[in-house]
Structure formats: C-alpha cells, structure tokens
Amino acid sequence: MEITPVAYFHSPFPSKFGLPRQSGLSTNLTGHIIFEKKYRDPSALHGLEGFDYLWLLWEFSGNRRAKKSLTVRPPRLGGNVQMGVFATRSPFRPNNLGLSAVKIDRIDLQTAHGPVIHVLGADLMDGTPIYDIKPYLRDADAYPEARSGFADTVDWQPLEVDFPVRLRQGLTAEQVETLMETLRLDPRPPYQEEPERIYGMPFDGRDIRFRISNGRLTVVEVV
C-alpha cells in the first residue's frame, strides 16, 4: 500500500526538541491542519463540527534516517531501561507512524488555504505530514480502567519553571502560558543531567534558552 499526506500540520515548534512527548500534555499548545489541494473541499469535513477531539495518523518525519531497533529506551523510565518497541510509543518505529488524539479548537471552512482545522494539545512539529483524520468517539475510544503497563509504575513530577518577566517581552500571554506548560514537561533527553548546561528550544521564531537543576528550570535568555 502506498499512502500520501492528506494534510500538513503547522506548529510553533519547528523541530522535535521541546515537543510534548504525548498529545494532551500541553493543553494550550495551538496548531492547525492545512489540507492538500485535492482535499480542500468543505464537504470532506461535514459533520466534524459535532466532535470535540480528533485522531491524527501522521509520520515521524524527523526520524526518516534514524536507526531502527526492536527495543527502545522510554523517557518515562529515565532512558535507561530497554522495552520492546511495540510496548512503547517511541517515535523510532518500523514505519515511522504516529497516532495522536487532539482537541478541536475551531474549524474555519473558508480560508486562503481552504478548510483549516485548529487544534490544541498536539505533539506534532511544524510541517508534519498527516495521512488520515478520524473523529474521536467517547464510547469506543476511552477505557478509563485499562492498565498502562510500565507507565502505571512510574511517578512523574513536572518541573518548577522560573521565567523572568523581563524575558517575556514580545511574547503574548498565550505564548507565555504555552511555554510555561511545555517547559514543565522537561524538554531534555531523559539521560541528560547537566546542571550547568544551557539548552536551546526553538519556539515560534525564537530560541528559548534555559538550564535545569534540582527539579527547577530557569529561562536565562530569549533570542
């Protein structure tokens, strides 16, 4: 089977670094879906206004040349424990396919790019190819009592974030809120623990530079 994108995702994150590791973790993170020309017909979205969430089937396009393995090291386990790739949501997969549930913010049927779906909480970087879109069904897609394997055994604590007001100039209140929420998730690779290291996270045309020590992230510069 050959598949081609039906749409592309647009996000403030131009690269993988800093992206939430799962959809829904950064609830204020905005993004939008622009369809390829052959799918820019409002009739293709008829009925979608009645749903709150979507499933996106997409490609880990930043990993096309990455080495593949049958075992991976999940960040949830600190990046030091091997698990089978099919027992994880690792982005390093045999066919580079991702699956995310995202919240519909609004749908604009008439724009210069045809119908556009605006969503919240996606874990896709800018330019990500989307291969299919399906509505999320509450009765069929949610199993609140289901076990979650090793994710049930590991407690995760968000970071405290110090984002000085003087560094927020030029950012909207919405951008600041999104950044705070995203930075709490700890953008670093899980195996890195270097208190003096300055990390840079690209976000909406800016470079957010920070360091992390003892569970606290401090933004030191916005370029």
From TrEMBL:
SUPFAM superfamilies reported in the protein's UniProt record: YaeB-like
GO molecular function, a single term: methyltransferase activity
Domain of life of the native organism: Bacteria
Claim: Mitochondrion is one of the keywords in the record: no
Single biological process term from Gene Ontology: methylation
Gene3D superfamilies listed in its UniProt record: YaeB-like (2.40.30.70)
Keywords, in A-Z order: Methyltransferase, S-adenosyl-L-methionine, Transferase
CDD domains found in the cross-reference section: UPF0066
Any matching Pfam family: TrmO_C
Residue stretches making up the TsaA-like domain: 3-145
Similarity comment text for this entry: Belongs to the tRNA methyltransferase O family.
Name assigned to this protein: Methyltransferase, YaeB family
